[in-house]
Specification:
4-stranded antiparallel beta sheet, elongated, 3-stranded antiparallel beta sheet, 37% strand, alpha+beta
């Protein structure tokens, strides 16, 4: 457990067809690619940092389930 990461630090959610992140008034701050943010869209390759030391690199993986493959096909058709 990192002292600068709150129990309710950020919220990840789908904003239409994009993955977004929103800082929940954390004391340590939320950073996307080095910039402090309140709310932003996340893309593959982005670096999400919570507080001064906890980092996540976002990667896109190919769907591996039947539902995931069906959703991908539906998205390509639209």
């Amino acid at each position: 457990q990192e002292a600068t990461v709150s129990r309710r630090h950020v919220r990840l959610f789908w904003d239409g067809s994009e993955l977004a992140v929103e800082d929940l008034n954390s004391s340590g701050g939320t950073f996307l690619n080095g910039l402090k943010i309140q709310r932003a869209v996340i893309r593959p390759g982005d670096v999400l940092r919570l507080g001064p030391r906890t980092e996540f690199v976002l990667e896109e993986e190919a769907p591996s389930t039947t539902l995931g493959l069906a959703m991908q096909k539906e998205g390509e058709e639209q």
